[in-house]
Design a protein that fits this description.
Elements lengths: L14 H5 L8 E2 L4 H4 L1 H10 L7 E3 L1 H7 L7 E5 L3 H10 L3 E6 L4 E5 L5 E6 L1 E6 L4 E5 L3 H5 L10 E2 L4 E3 L4 H6 L9 H7 L2 H13 L6 H9 L9 H12 L5 H9 L3 H4 L6 H14 L9 H9 L3 H10 L4 H10 L11 H8 L1 H19 L4 H16 L9 H6 L6 H16 L6 H17 L1
Parallel strand pairs: 3-6
Antiparallel strand pairs: 1-10, 2-3, 2-9, 4-5, 5-6, 7-8, 9-10
């Protein structure tokens, strides 16, 4: 047996990253950003600055702009108290929603598809691990120090000047997800940061997760039990939605985090193959990556087991039904029979069935099959694009054929449906009516 010396643990972040740079001026620039030039963005900035207060973009929009990634959510911060922020927006005829007034957050709504979350600069006064008591401040660095990770503590002025108090630009460039301050303390403030650590590493990290953060996550893994199911669910599904989630999920297992939030997880190879097929293996419109499908792949449960997971994670009723269907041993749709499968099970259940079966086959076999690949892609294309057919006859047609209202109507209709499905839903209304009448006539002769 060969024993290898384990790698030395990574050192703590430099003191300068932990303490921050209180007097540091702007250290970078966003460059040209389309979202900065939107009329709605400019209108919100003008409203917030109307009385001379400063405003900055903060968090994800700054991080993603520096990383040359699409910007989705635009958040701003200002030293102006929230009630005054609302007054400034209303004065500019911008609709304002007090989405988190007790925490200093309001949302400016600028027409369909354009909203801006605006939060007053704040600092923590006290926290119990789930809720923080905050006080308004005018100190930009104190507000940045509340952020979970250095890459999320970046801010930028409306002209694009970037402020970086905790070396987030350096960490972003090197793919390091590092807590602001001591990881232990930040997790004690909010245990959800454990899951956020893995999510941000999955999206922005390179190599293994940062050792100090990983160790703190493992030490406090049991604290996740104090979180609401909804918060855990949202983070878990975001982790599963990244392009390659399997490596991160394995890191979560190694840190004993997965056994707390999803002890049923066991099929890591199937998860990897499902993500590969969704991201690169199959390019079909209407078949985007799907975290719910990946959850089913990872847990490989029965219908009852997956339904129990869905209830525990507080999924919607529709999501629980879909998850349970993925645990049923449904017949695999056959080439040329896509219409019948769509009519019987619905589009999503058929796509789920084929993709999961293919991913598990690839995981077990460890090889590709060009003939099988072509057949499966053609089937998936049919399932994704063909219209879902409807039975061309209904109960009233059975009544008009001479059957009295009662259970027999449903029985006859079910028989017609079976005949129609066996014909791959090809018969139209005239042919289906002829068959229905022949069934009714046969019953009359018995």
């Amino acid at each position: 047996m060969i024993f290898r010396k384990p790698p030395a643990p990574e050192p703590e972040p430099p003191v300068r990253s932990l303490l921050g740079h209180a007097n540091r001026g702007p250290v970078g620039h966003l460059g040209v950003q389309e979202w900065l030039q939107w009329p709605e963005t400019q209108a919100v900035i003008a409203a917030l600055q109307a009385d001379g207060a400063a405003v900055r973009f903060v968090g994800g929009c700054v991080r993603d702009a520096l990383a040359h990634r699409p910007v989705h959510d635009i958040d701003l911060t200002t030293p102006t108290p929230p009630e005054q922020v609302m007054a400034l927006l209303e004065r500019a005829a911008i609709r304002c929603v007090p989405t988190g007034l007790s925490h200093g957050t309001v949302t400016a709504v600028c027409g369909p598809g354009r909203s801006y979350e605006i939060t007053t600069l704040r600092e923590d006064v006290a926290t119990d691990g789930r809720h923080a008591e905050v006080a308004w401040t005018t100190n930009w660095m104190a507000d940045a120090a509340r952020r979970d990770f250095t890459i999320n503590a970046l801010s930028a002025t409306p002209d694009g000047a970037v402020y970086d108090y905790f070396d987030g630009i350096e960490h972003l460039a090197h793919g390091r997800v590092i807590f602001v301050g001591r990881a232990e303390r930040r997790i004690q403030e909010d245990a959800l940061r454990i899951l956020r650590f893995f999510r941000f590493h999955a999206r922005y990290g390179r190599g293994a997760p940062y050792a100090n953060g990983l160790s703190a996550c493992q030490h406090h893994a049991a604290d996740l039990l104090s979180l609401s199911a909804e918060r855990v669910r949202d983070e878990l599904l975001k982790i599963l939605a990244v392009p390659e989630p399997a490596g991160t999920v394995l890191s979560m297992r190694g840190a004993r985090v997965l056994e707390v939030i999803l002890p049923e997880a066991k099929a890591f190879g199937a998860l990897r193959q499902t993500a590969f097929l969704e991201e690169r293996g199959v390019r079909i419109a209407g078949l985007p990556p799907d975290p719910l499908r990946r959850l089913a792949a990872l847990t490989a449960g029965t219908a009852d087991g997956l339904e129990a997971i869905g209830h525990r994670l507080r999924l919607s009723a529709a999501e629980i039904r879909r998850l349970a269907l993925m645990g049923l041993d449904l017949p695999l749709p056959q080439p040329g029979q896509a219409a019948a499968a769509l009519a019987q099970w619905g589009r999503m259940a058929c796509l789920d069935r084929v993709l999961l079966d293919w991913a598990r086959w690839r995981d077990v076999e460890g090889r590709t099959d060009s003939v099988g690949t072509g057949r499966r892609i053609a089937l998936l294309n049919d399932l994704a694009t063909l219209p879902v057919p409807d039975l061309p006859v209904a109960g009233r047609d059975v009544l008009e054929a001479g059957i009295s209202p009662g259970p027999q109507v449903g029985q006859i209709l079910a028989g017609v449906r079976d005949w129609w499905l066996q014909a791959n839903c090809q018969p139209g209304r005239d042919e289906a009516l002829l068959y229905l009448r022949s069934v009714v006539q046969a019953l009359a002769l018995t």
